[in-house]
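During the reporting period the student researcher (J.K.) took over the structure-prediction task from the postdoctoral fellow and processed the backlog of single-chain submissions. One of the processed entries is reproduced below for the supervisory committee.
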Amino acid sequence: MEITFPRITIQLTFNCTFIKTIKMEDQNFKNHAKLVPLFHGATALLLLTGLILTLVNFIRCISNDGKLLEATILMFLFLIAFFFFWFIRTFALGAQDRAIRAEENLRYFTLTGKLLDSKLTLRQIIALRFAPDEEFVQLVERAIKENLKPSTIKQSIQNWKPDYNRI
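J.K. obtained the following C-alpha cells:
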C-alpha cells in the first residue's frame, strides 16, 4: 500500500503470515494429529493453574473476611479467560469441520454425481478426507454399510492423502 502526501511518500508492506504451517515429511495415521505446545500445553496449564489459585484465594477470602471483591473479580477474569481459551478452539474447529464437510461432499459429488449419504456422521466425513480419490468412493460406501468408526476409516486408507491445512 502506498500513501502519498505532498513531498512525502510512505510505502507500507504487510506480511500476513501469522501461522507458519510446518509440513510433515510423510503424513500418515500415526502422525497426522497436530498439537501446538504453547497453545495446547503451556497456555492451558497456566490458565488451569491460575483458575485453581483464584478459587483457593476466593475461598480463603470468604473464610477470613478478606478482600472478597478483588478475589471475586480475579476469579471471574480467570473464568472468562478459560472460557475464551476453550471457545476460541471450539469455534475454529467447528468452522473447519463445516468446510471439510462441504469439500468432501463436493468431492463425492464430482466422483459419483451424488451427494454424500446423510447416514455418515461429521466425524466419519472428517476421517474420509485423508482418502485419495481412488479409495474414497469405496471407503464411503463401506463406512455407511459397516458404520465404521473414524479411527477405523483412517486406518483403512492405503495411500494417505495429507491434510496440512488443519490448524
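The committee noted the following: The CA atoms of residues 12 and 118 lie 49 Å apart.
J.K. will present the remaining backlog at the next meeting.
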